[in-house]
Each structure stands twice: as structure tokens, then as C-alpha cells.
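A common beginner's mistake is to predict each chain separately and then try to dock the pieces by hand. The better habit, illustrated here, is to supply every component at once so that their relative placement is modeled jointly.
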Amino acid sequence: MSDVAARAALADVVALGRRIGVETAAVHAADVDDRARFPKETIDAFRAEGLLGALVPAELGGLGHDLRQAAAVVREVARSCASSAMVLAMHHIQVASLVRHGSTPALTEFVRRVAAEQLLLASATTEIGIGGNTRTSSCHVERVPGPDGEVFRLTKQAPVISYGQYADAFVATARRAADSPASDQVLVVCEQHGVTLTPLSGWDTLGFRGTCSLGFTLEATGPADLVCATPFGDISSATMLPTSHLLWSSLWLGLAEEASWRAQRFVQKAARKDLTATPPGAPRLAALMITRQQFASSVEAVLSRYLEIADDPEETSAIDFMVAINALKVSASTLVVDVVNQAMLICGIQGYREDSEFSLGRLLRDAHGAAVMVNNDRIAGNTAQLALVQREAR
Amino acid sequence: MSSSTVTATIRTILAEHARLGTDVSALSDTDDLYAAGMTSHASVTVMLACEDEWDIEFPQQMLKKSTFASVAAIAAALAELGVGEQASA
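With all components supplied together, the output reads:
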């Protein structure tokens, strides 16, 4: 695709994301947040546009978007409803992993069905008792003979499965076999009709209330060729981890941009009321615009870097890139709170109120989710270890 | 130091730092250490232990997952840095 065509294609998806955001997500966002309910209307709108197959290649019936286009839609929708955008982001992460690493014809066929049937994929990558490290599992895949060939069985205690009750399939991690070490993991696609979910905990949180990230015991069975043979560690470093941090950072950027624009509109309104003086919030707005630009530039820079190397596992597992992707997550999740805080000071009581056009309450609550979903301190610890071994390129 | 001594020392380092699910002696020189349970965290410790043992520094282009994927891979990387060459020649 030429640069001009790529820019036009990107503008089209931005417009699509904005339209769904404004026409659907924004309409229901307060109710989704208030009742901590699934943003069904927005997900239906994604389906109507084929967006659940956005990252599925065109030859498999999807929209064939690249990660930049997918991130642009997530960023736009986040301006209206962060929970809706997070559901889309988490779905994309699973799809991206299966598209690049699906190792069997059955997995390719499943990816085709994701696009054709607009299946919503949830993730079951964390487990109770492993201390929050997704690169180890305690549960394992059991393979048993079935009437139509070998089947897998899996039981996993998951502390969170976001939108688990609304998903059409689950992408779960587990040890490859009963005698595998904790780090020898595989990804398993568990289709809803072979899954029993038993809730372990509720979801009553400060923000991202619409993701309905309850804990569940997942009991699953299905054909054994829906187990992806590629080591999960390779999938994680090449695709799942970078895609997660890039899509989440894009989402937080959209959230920050919404807060920033509310502050900007507030200052502009004040400027119109008194044409003789610069509004008191204007200097602070100028500072906020610097933070906003730094934030957007850092997301864009790491996104471009990843798109260049995404198909080269040596490059994506190299220390330099791991440091970059970790740094992006920590900085983006910190900046989103900074931006909303600055916007709050600019909008003052109008931002603090829950009933004004400049309200920032939900945005601030959602923003605080960024640092705790994959805790920044865990990532900082990981980066600190990488810093011990990172060497200058010579 | 001969290349067989280097291999033995690598195995000692792995036993101490790789946190494998199995005994190192049960693995061949070409068995995949990550499949045997070595995490990327543990591989960092292994790398630092190698640098300390032979007073070397792995250059940036060698800092890849594949460099530490097996006993043989580590030995090959060390050989490239001059470890084990003299005595075996």
C-alpha cells in the first residue's frame, strides 16, 4: 500500500471508530459504568462493522487491518467508553496471537470463523496461585481419545476472565502436559459450547466497570487440534505482550485525549465569555498539550518500531525491544492519570461535577486502572532485570 | 580450559541458576532449556553467571533467546568470544 493509500485507509478507520464511539458507546457509557454491565450495544456495533475480524487477514475473510488501524479504532472508542474499547483491545490481542501463531488447520479454520461469525474471544491467561506471572501455569492440558479423534480437557482457576459470560470462545494458557514444567505453556482455544464457567468472584471496581472481569473456574473440552503447539513463551514475546501494551497504551491515549479536549473546550468557552483577558486555565492547558503530544509520540514510536519487526522473533525477543515495550506500558499508564489530573485542575469544579459537560470523574477512575492491570511495579522489576544485561549496540 | 571443561562448567551454572524442572544431567547438550523449564528471568541469571565465570561480556547482538537455548548454544556463543578455544586447539 502506498503512503497516501495507507493514510486514507487509516483516516477511514479513525472515522469508523469515532462514529461508533459517538453514536453508540457514548450513549450507553454512563449506564455501563453505573451498573458495571457489559457494553453490549457497542460490541454489537463492532460486529455490525466486522470489527471483531479486524485483525483477521482478508484471505481468511477478515478486514485485514494492521495493528496501527486496530489501535486507531481502540483509541477513538476509548474517548467515549473505555470499557468498550478495552473489550475490543483484549479481543484483538487474542486474535493477533492466533493469526500469527496458529499451528494447525483447525486453528486457521477457527480464525476464519472469528471473522465470519464475529466471535468474541476472551482471555484466560492468569491463574490463581501463580503470583500474577502469566508466563507460568499450574493447570495442564490433558489429552484423551474421543469418538471423533483426540480431545483436550482443561480446568483452570482464573482470577479474572474479562467479559467471560459474554464470550464465544476463550484463549487459555496451560502447561503442555501433566509432566511439563510451569513455564512450558501452550495456548488452547476453548469454544463456548465446550466450556463450563463457575464464578469465583464479582467485579465491582473503581473503573473499567463494563469489562465484567469476574473470576471463574473454567472447565473446557474440545478437539485437541485447537491446542496451539507453538511454545506460549514465543507467542507472548512476539505477539501477545507487545500487542497488549500497544493496544492498551492506545486506549489510555484516547482516554487522555478526551480529558484533554474537555479541558481545551472549557478554556475556549471561558475565552469567549471574557474577550479582554486570557482565561486562567490557558497556561496550564499549554502545559497539558505538551504532555499530550509526548504521550501520543511515544505510543506512535513504539508502534512503528513493532510493525517493522513483528515478523522477526529474534528482534521481538531482543532485550532492547522488551525494554522499550515495558517502558511504554509504564509511561503510558502513568501519563494517562497525569493528563486527567491536569484536565481536572483546568476544568475545576466543572470537571469535578458528575453532571457537567466537562465531567472527568469516570475518566479519572478508568485512568487509574492502567497502572494496576499488569502492575507497573511488576513491570519495573522486570525492566530492572533487563537493565542488568542490556548492552549498547556497537 | 578445554571445550569439554567449558561444557561441564556450563552445566554447573545451569544446575545452580537455570531453575529447570528437571536435573541438568538428564538433558543432552542440544536439549531445549526453555522447554525444560528455564524462564527468561532465569536465563538472565545464567548469562550473568557465565560472564562472571569467564570474565567476558556478551555483546548486544548475542543477547537473544536462542543464544541460551541449549548447552551447545551457550558453548558456541562462548567459543565465539574465545572461551575454550586455546586448550582445545
